[in-house]
């Protein structure tokens, strides 16, 4: 990598020093000041609109060594429609960790209300280590990317071997880089982007993991925080092992709701006329599939596979037809007529691999196949030193949680590569500074459940929450144009005025209940896959 010293005149960082914390949370030495870079904007691709521009910035790999190795950060923009009404820039992040965001301005522009397209330059970026921003790789085989591992005492040694292998491969392939692929460093990169754009402050729209990135930015750079919307919140107190475990705890009430909903429609799905009967049908199916996998649309499905689909139960109208169809396949009987069944093969592939679904800039270089997974583990393992190092702790926790939360508890608490990861360079970011931001949440979100979003809201003193009561799905604002959150969130982005108090509004029926087409498997700007 080139050194940053020869580039100081044109490729500096920010106009003030950047705060650092040691692994214990103590302040580290400040970084020297440099002037901002000036992006060399160019058309992203001849296959995309000329208004969609790209550029590359240079940042330090390690902000404690600003004259050391560097990384490229790919950025993009679409300028505001109405320069006279322009408020500033709106940075966008789709979630992850490991989700590319360079294409987001193009994807989000049409979804934004017209008045907001006139107020903001939309800014996308691939976070450090992701996509076209100096992508990282651990050289993982596809099967090594699957972190959905059910706990059984007899297979736990292979789980430990898998976790150790992933950590070892990452250390061998990218051990000098991965410790610096963290949320705090990505927040510093965001501030470098701000400086390069010549802005005093930035506004921000971040989904899922993007809420954690945004909240960390508000704490590190409170004076540069403008209008921030944090949609589908990560609870900073749970980052990161607790965010896996909240998938298990909150799957249980979602499952109970599904049994009630499905029992009311026994004539349609044939799974039982009471919640207890529906539950029994499901667990009998799981046990049967564990004994003998079910052949379904060319896929052999085990009971553990069915449990990995725990996110579907947050949307009963999607889960019920799939479970009914699987039950019919297991019994060798015809499917109930008229069922619209999600693509099981795609759902299982999504559940087995950490990589989120995302689109990319046309003709952009392909990152390594495991890029998203490598960046994912770098962040969730490297952001905090709180991961247990004793494999036995994971075995005890997984056994306990399999009993307490049978749908997903063992998979949530089973061992992860973080048990063998390199020690964190910095500690987690304390949420102590006031943050006048807007948090947004669906009541039934499988990836960042309601309790997680409420935890983020509590942690950010001064924040307001807009809650879509009855809302289903991961990502709210603009993901469903009929969502009740659209008006208050758009008003905040247009005026900068937070609601006087938290807002709870009633969501319309979920798209599947409205008998609309199920979500398309095509790339979407909104978070997807088994991530945050």
Order of helices and strands: EEEEHHEHHEHEHHHEEHHHHHHEHEHE
Average pLDDT rating: 90
How many individual helices?
Answer: 16
Principal-axis shape equals globular
- In angstroms, what is the radius of gyration? 23 Å
Q: Which stretches are low in confidence, meaning pLDDT under 50 for 5 or more residues running?
A: 1-19, 21-34, 515-523
Find the structural class using helix and strand composition. Answer: alpha/beta
Distance between the termini: 31 Å
Fraction of helical residues: 25-40%
Across the major sheet, the strand order is 1-2-3-5-4-6-7-10-11-12
Report on the architecture of this protein.
With 532 residues, this protein is α/β, with parallel strands linked by helices. It is built from 16 helices and 12 strands. The protein has helices at 104-109, 114-119, 156-174, 183-196, 209-220, 241-263, 266-269, 275-291, 303-308, 316-331, 344-352, 371-382, 391-404, 409-413, 450-459, 486-495; strands at residues 42-43, 53-60, 70-78, 88-93, 120-125, 202-207, 225-231, 294-296, 299-301, 438-444, 464-472, 503-506. The strands form 2 sheets. A 10-stranded mixed sheet has the order 1-2-3-5-4-6-7-10-11-12, with helices on both faces. α6 (241-263) packs across α8. The longest helix is centred in the middle third of the chain and has 23 residues, at 241-263. It starts with 41 loop residues before the first strand and ends in a 26-residue tail after the last strand. The model is unreliable at 1-19, 21-34 and 515-523 (pLDDT under 50).
